[in-house]
Amino acid sequence: MSNPAPLLLVVDGNSLTHRAYHAGAAFPGEHAEPPVWALRGLIGYIARAAAKLRPDALLIGFDCPDESLRKAEYPGYKAHRPDKPADLAEQLRAAPGLLAEAGLTTIVARAHEADDVLASAAAHARRCGWRTVVMTSDRDAFTLIDESTSVLRVRNGGIDEAVLVTPQALHEVYGVHPWQYVDYAALRGDPSDNLPGVRGFGSATAARLLAAFGTVEAAWTALDTGAAASVRSVVGEAAAATLATSEARAIVARN
Question: Residue 172 to residues 150, 167, 208: CA-CA distances in angstroms?
C-alpha cells in the first residue's frame, strides 16, 4: 500500500487568536501586562493540532492589520463591527513575529486576510500533490474543501471538540457539495461580515435551490429562458421573484 500524500496544516491565525482571547477573557486573574493570554491560547491550539495531525509542514496566516482590499472594494465590509479591544489588537499585532521567532512560518499578505493565505496555501499544496487541513473557527474556509483539503473547525471545547469537515461531512450538514458552497454562502450572506444575502434565501432555501439546479447561474438561466416555474416549484413564488432581480444578482456577485 502506498504512503499517503504529505500533509500541510495551515492555520487561521486571526480566527484562533480571537477565539483564544474570548476564551481567556473569563479568567481575569490570568491576565498580565503586556497581555499574552490570547497568544498563549493560539500557541496551544497550534501545538495540540500539530501533535494530533502530525503534519509534514505548518503555516500560519494572519490578516494585514493596516489595509484591506475588501474594504476598499466594498466599504460596508465589516463596517458594523466595533473596534477591537486594545489588548486583543496588541496581541494580534504581536502574534506573527512571536511565532516567527519560534521558528514557525507565518504570512501576512499586504491588504489581504488570513482567508487568502489559507486559500493560496491549499491551492499550492494541491498542485504539489499534498493534502491540506485548514484549522479555523470560521466557516468561510468551507469554500476550500475538496478531496485533498478538509477543514478542522475549532469551536467551543478547543481541539478536542473540533470537527474535521470533509466533502462528505459538508454535504451531510449543509446539503451542498463543496463546489456549491461559494454559491450557497453568497445567496445566504454573512451578517458577521455585514454582507446581506438575497432576501428569502436562508440556509435551507439556498440548499434546495442548489440541490435542484447545481449552481445559481443555472437557476438564473431557467428564470431568463421561460422556465421560471421550475424555480418557483423549488423555492416558492416570492423567493423566485426576488432571485430574478438585478439586485439579487449584484448581491451574489459581491458576496
Answer: 14, 9, 13
User: Which whole-number Å values give the CA distances from 181 to 82, 137, 142, 188, 248, in the listed order?
Assistant: 28, 17, 7, 10, 17
Q: Under 8 Å CB-to-CB from 170, ≥6 apart: which residues?
A: 142, 145, 176, 177, 178, 181
* Strands across the sheet containing 131-136: 105-108, 57-62, 7-12, 131-136, 149-153, 163-165
Specify the DSSP class assigned to residue 104. -
For 244, counting Cβ atoms within 10 Å of its Cβ (0-12 exposed, 13-18 middle, 19+ buried), the class is: middle
Given CA atoms 114, 145, 23, 45 in this order, what sign does their dihedral have?
negative
- CA-based torsion, 186, 191, 196, 200: positive or negative: positive
Q: Could you report the per-residue pLDDT of 201-247, keeping only the tens digit for each? A: 999 999 999 999 999 999 999 999 999 999 999 999 999 999 999 99
Q: Please give the single-letter amino acid code of residue 110.
A: R
Please tell me whether the overall predicted TM-score, pTM, comes out greater than 0.85 for this model. Answer: yes
For the chain, the straight-line distance linking the first and the last C-alpha, in angstroms and rounded, comes to 43
pLDDT one-digit tens code per residue, 84-129: 899 999 999 999 999 999 999 999 999 999 999 999 999 999 999 9
Beta bridge partners of 153: 136, 163
Grid cell at residue 180: 456549491
Distance CA 64, CA 207 (A): 33
C-alpha–C-alpha distance, residues 106 and 13, integer Å: 9
* Cβ proximity of 235 and 200 under 8 Å: yes
